[in-house]
Amino acid sequence: HRFQPQNPLCGAQPFSPREVGGEEEELRLSAHTLLLPTRGQLEARMMVTAFEMGLDNVTEDAISTMICAVE
After folding, report:
1. Which superkingdom heads the taxonomic lineage of this protein's source (predicted)?
2. Which of 25, 45, 55, 70 could cross-link to 50 by cystine, CB 3.0-4.6 Å?
3. Could you give the CA distance from residue 54 to residue 57 in angstroms, rounded to a whole number?
4. What is the DSSP letter of 12?
5. Which DSSP letter does residue 28 get?
6. What is the spatial distance between Cα 58 and Cα 39, in angstroms, rounded to a whole number?
7. Distance from chain centroid for Cα 12
C-alpha cells in the first residue's frame, strides 16, 4: 500500500550525440583514400566476415589469395 511510482531514467546520464569531426578520426575507407588496404586491415575484415558466417578462423593462404585478388 506504500507504492510510489518512480521514473527509472531519473538517474541516467543525459544523452549527447558525438559531433562529426570530433576528437575521433573519421572512418576512412579505401574508396575514399584510393589506397589498397594493408594486410592487417584485410585480415581484420576477413576475420569479422568469417565470424559472421560461423567460421572459426581465416588461413594465411586465404589472406594471401585475397591480397592478390585486391591488387
Report:
1. Eukaryota
2. 55
3. 9
4. S
5. -
6. 13
7. 26
* Three-class secondary structure of residue 60 per DSSP: helix
62, 46 Cβ separation under 8 angstroms:
yes
For the whole model, what pTM was predicted?
A: 0.56
Contact indicator for 39, 63 with CB cutoff of 8 Å: yes
How far, CA to CA in Å, does 29 sit from each of 11, 32, 36, 41, 69? 39, 5, 9, 11, 18
Residues 35, 4: Cα–Cα separation, whole Å: 61
SS3 category, 70: helix
Averages of pLDDT over each 10 residues, the chain, 71 residues: 76 68 63 86 91 92 93 87
